[in-house]
Amino acid sequence: MTTNPNPTDIPVSVRTAKSRSPQAVGVITAGALVERFTVPQRDSRHKRGYQRPVSPTRVNKLAADLRAGTVDLPTAVLLNVRQPKDGILDSVEEPTTVLHLDGHELFVVDGQHRIEALQKLVDENPEKWSSYEIPFVCMIGADETEEMTQFYVVNSTAKSVRTDLALDLLKQQAESNPDLMANLVQKGEDWKVEGQSITETLSASRLWKNRIRFPSDPKGETTIGSAGVVSSLKQLLDTPYFGQISTENRLRILDAYWEGINQVIPEVFIDPTEFAIQKSTGVQIMHQLLVSAIELLRSKGMSVVEPESYAEVLEDALLNLEGDSAEGGVVRGADFWRSGVHGAAGSFSSNAGRRVLLARLRTELPAVEVE
User: Fold this and answer.
1) Which of 100, 152, 268, 270 is surrounded by the most beta carbons within 10 Å?
2) 96-100 vs 9-16, strand pairing mode
């Protein structure tokens, strides 16, 4: 990026917004910005300000990513000069205008975490980061009420990226950017890329075809979103055995595991939309149960890539599982997993419920053998 010889005199374009105040649009250096910004924090008691408390975690993460060079700040921060002095905007030559910032305070309407991260970096290494440039939009002469209105519009209409789309994009980026992958490994988030890879391949398997919903897919007969499957794999990928083997072998294990479940309770796979085992609750629980199943098979010297192995060790746990349906009856085996009022799995959908159900399944597994 080029450096402005006088970072407080900034070439801008000026637009007349529908609000009362004109807006200057340009690029400002981090050094010029962090010297004069103010964040109007919300004081609910006195009804002043509007900004939420800054999150140190978000600031530190963004600063670390900027320091590592894995992100940039391409989107503009929104600022305001409340009481502009005469001559703050100086038309030099159409359409060029200069914004003179000396002696002015910049109130942050949107972008406080980006600016706080830049403040942290400038404090650490001013020679490197003071010249870093970030795009900005600056209202000229707006009062706090107008700032508050703009803050509300920006933050009430913004929508975060869906998790399934974020994971899809993350995997694609990581495959072509070794630096990003190294950064994910350093932060312990590489499991997201591997989980997305596994999920994409698993979706083509016999039992999972047309069951996993990816971004932009219609719901159709799918039973679970791709992000739900990815998150269910985190604990598995953190285990010493499953976490160390190749992706190909991980997929062989998962395919054999689900085929083994199919051998014990085939009814749940005939019309999966009517059962919970291939929905979020079931997938989370069954993938956590796989941790125990793998260790059990290995202790017995049984194959971890044969469906028959899983069918043998899971048979009692799956067939003996019972609970009360919403209709008041006791349901067992495959019927336990029926969706809605006809089954019992729905009552275990909370975090606490999933822990209870997982513990019940584990108690029905054969004992791990030790030599």
Assistant:
1) 268
2) antiparallel
